[in-house]
Design brief:
The protein folds into 3 domains: 70 residues, no CATH class; 66 residues, Orthogonal Bundle (Arc Repressor Mutant, subunit A); 150 residues, GntR ligand-binding domain-like (Four Helix Bundle (Hemerythrin (Met), subunit A)), CATH 1.20.120. It is 66% helix and 3% strand. It contains 13 helices and 2 strands; from the N terminus they run H-H-H-H-H-H-E-E-H-H-H-H-H-H-H. The protein starts with a helix and ends with a helix.
Length: 302
């Protein structure tokens, strides 16, 4: 910058806002003419050429706090992600319901204006997230699933495999979660819930007597689901189900069979729920879950 212009810039930078309109605007116009720069009709363009111009970055003292805006890098959205996002939104808004069948991949490709490969990739992603099921055959297609938390249980298992979560973490979380659920169950459970629990216990007893390990595991998972449902808050059912599934896998892998004592413990727990004895139910179930945890650890180390 030539000395004269440098001096001009210095003067401008130290002007107060009140003097800006009367002194700076004519001066900038003069500078533009001397530099043979075409006057800018757009103030933002002028600010680009002269950053000390109002609207740009103030280099002098000012009462205004400089604003620093941080933006994240812009990422291009892949086609299949945009497709899956739209389908998710249709489910969230209730346009698509569990059991609904999506149009064929050919029809979807036309609607989205994309290739069939992009549609198929989006559907595979939604299938892996347990949002829809892809069925083969003449009557097959893509069907919206009921949310069952199976993708959550897979995520927990993956994190355990990566050593980010331990069995101790799962047990502690399960005990605390069931404490909350038992309190709510004692308040909200009704006769139909007690009837379901009683039937479940009878099923478990039969599975123990016939040494049916698979039925033992299934009835155990259902037992905790029924208790969670008795709170009348579906969120607890969604949370309990995947945790119960993870524990079930550990029990199966450890080869643990349910002894008849577990059936008696569940009968005791059912009676405490009927009596609305939350503290008693919590004490019984917490001790039971700790016993299961120790049994899994013992079998895993032998």
């Amino acid at each position: 910058m030539r000395p004269a212009l440098a001096g001009t810039a210095s003067v401008i930078c130290n002007l107060s806002d009140s003097a800006h309109d009367t002194m700076v605007e004519p001066l900038i116009s003069s500078v533009e003419l001397r530099l043979n720069v075409r006057p800018a009709s757009d103030p933002s363009a002028l600010a680009d050429r002269f950053p000390f111009h109002r609207g740009g970055i103030s280099l002098g003292q000012s009462n205004k706090r400089p604003v620093i805006t941080v933006f994240k890098p812009v990422k291009s959205v892949r086609t299949f992600e945009a497709i899956s996002d739209q389908i998710r939104r249709q489910i969230e808004t209730g346009v698509l319901q569990p059991g609904d069948k999506l149009p064929s991949d050919r029809e979807l490709a036309v609607q989205f204006g994309v290739s069939r490969n992009s549609v198929r990739e989006a559907l595979r992603i939604l299938e892996s997230a347990s949002i829809l099921e892809l069925q083969q055959g003449a009557s097959g297609g893509a069907f919206i699933l009921e949310g069952d938390g199976s993708n959550v249980s897979r995520s927990i298992s993956d994190m355990m495999a990566l050593k980010q979560i331990s069995l101790q973490h799962v047990t502690e979380a399960r005990v605390e979660l069931m404490n909350v659920i038992l309190r709510l169950a004692c308040e909200n459970a009704d006769a139909s819930d007690f009837e379901l629990l009683e039937k479940n216990i009878n099923t478990t007893r039969a599975a123990v007597e016939t040494n049916d390990l698979e039925l033992q595991m299934e009835s155990t998972k259902d037992f905790y689901t029924i208790i969670a449902q008795s709170t009348k808050n579906p969120m607890y059912t969604l949370i309990v189900a995947p945790i119960s599934e993870v524990v079930r896998r550990f029990v199966r892998e450890a080869g643990i069979r349910i002894p008849i004592e577990v059936v008696k413990t569940r009968e005791q727990l059912l009676q405490l729920l009927r009596d609305r004895d939350a503290e008693g139910a919590i004490a019984v179930l917490s001790a039971h879950l700790d016993t299961i945890h120790e049994a899994i650890l013992h079998r895993s180390h032998h």
